[in-house]
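Long-time lurker. I teach an intro course on protein structure, and each term I like to show students one example going from raw sequence to a predicted 3D structure in token notation. This year I'd like something fresh instead of my usual example. Would anyone be willing to generate the tokens for the chain below so I can use it in lecture? Attribution to the forum is fine with me.
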Amino acid sequence: MALRRLRKFARQGNDLELDMDDTIKSTAKNAGYLDIKMVPERLNSVKVIVLFDVGGSMDPYVKLCEELFSAIKTEFKNLEYFYFHNCIYESVWKDNFRRNENRITTQSILSKFTKNHKLIIVGDASMAPYELTNPGGSIEHWNKQSGEQWIRKLNGYFHKSVWLNPVHEDHWDYTSSIKMISGLMDKKMFPLTISGISDAVGYLSKRH
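-- Reply from a regular --
Happy to contribute to a lecture. Here you go:
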């Protein structure tokens, strides 16, 4: 239900939907002769990109993330999603079973999508600090640019972006990488709870 706060509808497309109120008013003004009024179909205009951290320390939160993903897919027609592990580097993937074969460059996300897309990053932000700050810090491959640089690029490009963290908020201060990423996200990190999602969506819904 919290995600529905983000739903904004725009009148666009062809005349596909009956405007009942206007039809009744127009028919009454037309001496009872039926005067049908149509309006463009009401569509959800919000465009959302979701980046999911998968594997490792995220395994305990698989069910929670699956529920979130199911809700997001239901609410938003204009949805793009990608996966990463631990930290975002120069590439992400769509199919977790073919993550090594079918990579998508993170730069292509910045090139392909507009600044008005809403970016939601889901992850525990829990890692060794060097994984975030150092070139070559990834535990899976050699990364030329640090994860910190890529998070800055993403957060700086999109007008509105948030980070949803499944770790209990009371524990955030005990993990240095969580505090560091929260800072990189301009403090727009929210707990992956009903109230946290509601607060995140409230921020994403603001015009400014």
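Some talking points for your students: Helices lie at 20-29, 62-75, 106-112, 129-133, 147-157, 176-184, 194-205. Residues 9-13 have pLDDT under 50 and may be disordered.
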